[in-house]
C-alpha cells in the first residue's frame, strides 16, 4: 500500500468508524493492496467491504484476523489466491463475496469452519474442483461458482440441503451429479455455457426447481422426466438439439445378444410367476441385470442392456409453465425394445 493511501485511511475512514462505533465499513475502490493496520481496532465490525482493490493474501493478514464478529465480508475484485484462513476464526460469518479474484483451490480446513455461511460467491476465479468439504456448508442457500474451471461437481453437493440457488455457468462441466437430486429446496440452477452432453434425469427429483438454464451446452435431447417438472423458466437455446426432420427408417429387425434375449424372457416369466423371484434373488448377476430393465413405450415389453434410442417431440409450452414459455419443439428421449416396434408406425417416436 502506498504510504499516502495508508495515512489517509488510518486517519480518515477507519478513525471515523472508530469514533462512531459503526458496525459497517467500506474500503471499496481505495487502490490498496494491504489492509490498514488501524483496522485491528474495529473489532465491533459486522460488515466489511474492500472490493475493487489490489488486495493480496499477504495484504489481509494479520489485520483481518481481528474482525472476529464479521457476518458479511466482500473482497470481490482483488488479487486473492485462496480462502483467507482467518475465516476460521469468524464463527458468525454468513455472507462471503470473493468474486473476481485469483483463487485456484479451496482449503478444506477453512471450508469445514463455514457452517453458518448462507451466501458464498466465488464467481470469476480459477477453481477447478470443489473439495468434498463443501458438504460442511449445510446452511448455504446461494452458491456462486460461475466462470471458474470446474470439470465436475462432487457428489457431496447433495449435503447442501438448504441450497436454493446454484450458479455454475461458464465452466467445463460434462454432467450434473446425481447427488443434486437430494436438494429439495433448490429453486434455480444456472448451468449455461458448460459442456453438458445430457441432462441428468434425476434433476426431476428437485421438486422446488423453477428456473433451469442449460443453454449453450452440447445436449441433443432431454430425458422424459423433463415433462414431470414444474419449470417457470427453461433456457435451452444454443444446444445441438435433434431437429424435427423425419426420414423413413430403412432398418430391419436387429439380432440381439443371447444374454439380452434370456433376460427379457426371464423378466416376462417373473412378471407372471412370482415364485421364481426367490431363485432370482439368490443369483446376484441376474438380479442386478433385471433391476436395470426398462419398458418399451410401444409394446410394453422389457429390455435390459440393448434398446433403441429414439425421441419424441413435444411443444415447449407443455413442459414449461406458460408465463414466459418459449415456442418450438423439444426432443425428449424415448427407449424402445426393437426396430420392430419403431417400424410399427403406431406412435410418434422417431429413431435417431
Ligand atoms: Zn417394444
TrEMBL record:
InterPro entries: Leu-rich_rpt_typical-subtyp, LRR_dom_sf, LRR_domain-containing, LRR_R13L4/SHOC2-like. This is Disease resistance R13L4/SHOC-2-like LRR domain-containing protein. It comes from Amphimedon queenslandica. GO terms for cellular component: cytoplasm. The keyword Repeat applies. Pfam families: LRR_14 (PF23598). The keyword Repeat applies. Residues 132-236 form the Disease resistance R13L4/SHOC-2-like LRR domain. Gene3D superfamilies: Ribonuclease Inhibitor (3.80.10.10). Keywords: Leucine-rich repeat, Repeat.
Amino acid at each position: 500500500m502506498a504510504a499516502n493511501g495508508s495515512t489517509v485511511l488510518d486517519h480518515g475512514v477507519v478513525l471515523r468508524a472508530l469514533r462512531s462505533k459503526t458496525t459497517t465499513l467500506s474500503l471499496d475502490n481505495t487502490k490498496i493492496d494491504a489492509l490498514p493496520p488501524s483496522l485491528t481496532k474495529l473489532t465491533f465490525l459486522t460488515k466489511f467491504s474492500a472490493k475493487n482493490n489490489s488486495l493480496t493474501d499477504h495484504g489481509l493478514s494479520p489485520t483481518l484476523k481481528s474482525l472476529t464478529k464479521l457476518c458479511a465480508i466482500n473482497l470481490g475484485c482483488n488479487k486473492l489466491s485462496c480462502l483467507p484462513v482467518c475465516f476460521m476464526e469468524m464463527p458468525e460469518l454468513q455472507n462471503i463475496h470473493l468474486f473476481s479474484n485469483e483463487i485456484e483451490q479451496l482449503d478444506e480446513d477453512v471450508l469445514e469452519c463455514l457452517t453458518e455461511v448462507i451466501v458464498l460467491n466465488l464467481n470469476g476465479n480459477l477453481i477447478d474442483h470443489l473439495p468434498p468439504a463443501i458438504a460442511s456448508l449445510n446452511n448455504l442457500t446461494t452458491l456462486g461458482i460461475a466462470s471458474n474451471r470446474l470439470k465436475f461437481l462432487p457428489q457431496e453437493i447433495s449435503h447442501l440441503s438448504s441450497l436454493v440457488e446454484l450458479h455454475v455457468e461458464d465452466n467445463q462441466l460434462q454432467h450434473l451429479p446425481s447427488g443434486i437430486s437430494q436438494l429439495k429446496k433448490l429453486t434455480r440452477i444456472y448451468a449455461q455455457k458448460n459442456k453438458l452432453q445430457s441432462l441428468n434425469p434425476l434433476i426431476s427429483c428437485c421438486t422446488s426447481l423453477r428456473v433451469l438454464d442449460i443453454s449453450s451446452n452440447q445436449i441433443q435431447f432431454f430425458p422424459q422426466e423433463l415433462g414431470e417438472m414444474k419449470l417457470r423458466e427453461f433456457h435451452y437455446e444454443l444446444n445441438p438439439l435433434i431437429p424435427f426432420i423425419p426420414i423413413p427408417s430403412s432398418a430391419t429387425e436387429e439380432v440381439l445378444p443371447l444374454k439380452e434375449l434370456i433376460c427379457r424372457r426371464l423378466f416376462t416369466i417373473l412378471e407372471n410367476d412370482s415364485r421364481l423371484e426367490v431363485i432370482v434373488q439368490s443369483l446376484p448377476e441376474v438380479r442386478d441385470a433385471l433391476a436395470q430393465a426398462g419398458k418399451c413405450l410401444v409394446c410394453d415389453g422389457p429390455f435390459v442392456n440393448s434398446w433403441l434410442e429414439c425421441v419424441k417431440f413435444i411443444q415447449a409450452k407443455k413442459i414449461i409453465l406458460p408465463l414466459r414459455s418459449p415456442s418450438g419443439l423439444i426432443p425428449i428421449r424415448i427407449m424402445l425394445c426393437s426396430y420392430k416396434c419403431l417400424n410399427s408406425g403406431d406412435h410418434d417416436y422417431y429413431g435417431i
